Each structure stands twice: as structure tokens, then as C-alpha cells.
Amino acid sequence: MSPASAGRSRRGAAERARDEKMMKTALSAARKGDGRTYPNPSVGAVVFRGDEILGRGTTKPPGGPHAEIVAMENSRKRHGDRSLRGASIATTLEPCSFSGRTGPCADALVEAGITSVAVGCLDPHPRVAGRGIKRLRAAGIQVETGVLEEECRYTHRGFLSVIERGRPWITLKLATTLDGRIATAAGESRWITGSESRAKVHRLRNAYDAVMVGSGTALADDPSLTVRRGDKVLRTPIRILVDSRLRVPATHQLFSDPASAKTWVVCGTGARGIAKMRETAGSVIEIGKGRDRKLDLPEMAAALADSGLTTLLVEGGGGLAAALLRADLVDEVHWMLAPKLIGSEGFSGLGPLAVDALGEAVVIEPLEFAVPGIGKNGFTQAGPDIHVHGLIRRNAKTEGSGRRKISRPAGRKGTKA
Ligand SMILES: NC(=O)c1ccc[n+]([C@@H]2O[C@H](COP(=O)([O-])OP(=O)(O)OC[C@H]3O[C@@H](n4cnc5c(N)ncnc54)[C@H](OP(=O)(O)O)[C@@H]3O)[C@@H](O)[C@H]2O)c1
């Protein structure tokens, strides 16, 4: 039994089904804040009475109210001050129990007269860790825990990863031909996949705190890494360039477009040109070398978590992608496969993985629940392309090579807080 489901009360099937239905609404509210609340989780909450939804809420960016407070405020606005007395709330993460930049949500729920709370997953933050639920129960509120727990853990995978493993959740996105090539021998890579796949990638970018590329990709493609619909820039996530020797010139888009303050550069300690780069980039993070004489990627991941990032979408190229896989730092994969062939003279989608036996192959497993916009079962169609999605399966041999202890990724069946 998981910690979150340990305290489950004996509720009828109808009440459980209603909690799950409301939690689904809370999950879609949570997703609206993805990429916008780091270092905090984007929580979703729904105030309801019977089958009627009274108010929805999404966590506001840091310093703003948490989802439970927003949902209660919306309920008050739409249905009056008394609407909360005797109402229920579903929230994707355990309500907080301490005063930080905002007051404790658990106290606010008690004071508002909420009588029943459905919680998705426990908050492992050392200042909460079950205290939110304890506070609610002590006030006589009925608390149901572990409601759609796996979906809620997946939604909060970045926040959970930072607390449990000291590094962001890292997702790898690559687009290749069927024979696994990301560019022709002449270096042409635009566009391997169709417009549907590319639109999907922009939606993905929009849901992450940060997007990362290696210096090889920046030099070859001069990407902007913004979220766009057509020509319109909708958002610029934090853009991280991994460039140990600071080879990418300041004329590239990452440094010269209007959002250059959102470009962070990861380079080797004391890299040549670092003083100038500090004037050009939003942030410069110096990292030591690992055993392979390349940047120490576990140290980089820990430094990014220390800077507040919880989710990271790595968009290549093959050299950086393989290095992250070798360092056991990739948790999730989105692979766009175009029905095209380039042949072995094209650039491979992945650098060396040091796999000698098939048993050592990196295995990608589908999620066991549907994610809106992505689907279930591990693959969906995107125009003429196939979109393969899943979580990296970890085993005893590959686990734990990061600087800090690495536990199994959240969001998979059997994974507990
Ligand atoms: N189709 C797609 O989805 C897609 C996506 C991205 C790129 N691409 C294509 O891929 C090609 C570029 O791929 P790439 O493999 O050359 O470049 P890359 O993976 O973007 O960058 C590799 C570089 O990253 C730097 N790096 C820093 N720390 C590292 C570490 N620990 N391990 C490995 N590398 C580290 C190294 O340069 P320093 O040592 O100088 O730092 C290395 O040469 C381009 O042709 C591009 O068009 C295609």
C-alpha cells in the first residue's frame, strides 16, 4: 500500500467515482500552469458540491496563491461567501501546512468550512510530508488520499524529482527518420518531420520550465527554442545551451533575440570568454569535468535544480542526448519518427550508448494512463509521423549514477513517494 493510499477511508463506489471525476478536472487545471510555477509545482484544485463544480484553481507563479486558494476564491466569486461551507475539494497535491510566501492552505480549507478533501499525491517536501493531511483530519475534515495517484505523480514529476532526487525531471525529444537519422550528411535537418509533429513539439515546449540543446545543434541550426504558433511567439521558456568551450557566437538567436535574458549557458569551469558571456547570457553556470573529460552532467542537473528548474526538455542533438542517457539522467522520451530514409551516411539520432548486450538496451515503457495531447499505449500518429512516448525503465544496473541518489522515476505503477 502506498503512503498516499494508507489513510483511505471506506467510501462507497459512487463517492470514489465522483472524487476521480473531480480529480480529472483538477488535473487539467494543474496542466494549465505547467512550466510557469517553478520551483513550485503547478497544482490543480476543484471545489465541488455533489456533482456541481463551484470553482477551479491553478497555482499562480511564485508569490501568488496556491491552487486551493484560487479555487475557493473562484467559488466565492461565482456562488457567494457561503458556497464553501460543507463543500468538498479535490486537489492534485497534498495541501501545504506551512507559511512560506503564502499562508498554509490546510488552515485556509479548515477556516472556509470545507468538509471533505480528495488528495492526489502526498507532498514529500520536508515541511509538509503528511502534515497537511494531519491538520485537515485533526479539524474533522474527511480526507481521501491517493485519488488518481499515478496521474497526479506524473503531473508533479518535476517537483517530486527535485525533492526526491535533487535534479529536474529530464525529457528527451528527438525527431528522426525511420532509420534513426537526424540530419543528412550535408547537415540538413529541417524538416525531417511534418507540421503536425512540429506543432506537437511546440505544445510540449510550452509545458516545460526549460528547453536544452547542445553546442553542436546551436552551431548547426541556430534555433530560437521559443514556443510558436505559425510565426507568432507565444512564450519563451528558459533556454539552456550546453557549450563547455563557449563556441556558440553572440550573434546566434539564443543571444540576440528579444528574450536573450532567458538563455542560460552551461560551460566548463573558467571557460575562455566567460566574462563576456556573463554580459551576453541571462545566466552562466560553470560545471566541472566528469570522468570522460566532458562536462559532468549529473553536476549540471543538480545545479539546474538548485537554480529552481523542475522540468527540462532536451531537444538534442545526438551527442548530448546519448551523454545524458549514458549518465542515466533521462526519465522520459518523446520520439518523432518520420516515414523517411536517409541512409547510414546521415547523422545518427544518438551518439554511443555503450550497450554491449541486448539486455543493456535502454527500454522505453508506455504510461498506463492517457495524457491529454499525447494519448496512451506509447505511440500516437502525428500527420504522417509516429510519435513514440514513454518513460525510461530503470534497473539496478543503470540506477544511481547521478551525483545524488536517484530513485525510480515517479509516475510509473508501483512507484511511491
Ligand atoms: N532532428 C532532430 O530532432 C535534431 C535535434 C537536434 C539536433 N539535430 C541535428 O543534430 C546535429 C548536432 O548534433 P551533435 O551531436 O553534433 O550536437 P549536440 O548534441 O547538440 O552537441 C554536442 C556537443 O555538446 C557539447 N557537450 C558538452 N558537454 C557534453 C557532454 N557531457 N557530453 C556530450 N557533449 C557535450 C560538446 O561540445 P563542447 O565540448 O564543445 O561543449 C558536444 O560536441 C545537427 O546537425 C542538428 O541539425 C537534429
Share in β-strands: 15-25%
Please tally the β strands and state the result.
19
Unreliable stretches (pLDDT < 50, length at least 5) are 1-7, 400-417
Structural class: alpha/beta
Number of helices: 13
Please, what is the oligomeric state?
single chain
The largest pleated sheet is described as:
10 strands, mixed
Mean pLDDT: 89
Can you tell me the overall shape?
globular
Distance between the termini: 11 Å
Estimated helix fraction: 25-40%
Bound molecules: NADP nicotinamide-adenine-dinucleotide phosphate
Task: Give the helix/strand layout.
Blueprint: H1 3-6, H2 13-32, E1 44-49, E2 52-58, H3 67-79, E3 88-93, H4 105-112, E4 116-121, H5 131-138, E5 142-144, H6 149-155, H7 157-165, E6 169-177, E7 181-183, H8 195-206, E8 210-214, H9 215-221, E9 227-229, E10 232-235, E11 238-242, H10 253-256, E12 263-268, H11 274-280, E13 283-287, H12 297-306, E14 311-314, H13 318-326, E15 332-338, E16 347-348, E17 364-365, E18 379-382, E19 385-392
Parallel strand pairs: 3-4, 4-5, 6-14, 6-15, 8-11, 8-14, 11-12, 12-13
Antiparallel strand pairs: 1-2, 1-3, 7-16, 9-10, 15-19, 17-19, 18-19
Helix pairs in contact: 4-5
Bound molecules: NADP nicotinamide-adenine-dinucleotide phosphate.
Residues 174-175, 182-183, 187, 189, 192, 213-217, 220-221, 242-245, 247, 294-295, 297, 315-320, 323, 347 line the site of NADP nicotinamide-adenine-dinucleotide phosphate (NAP).
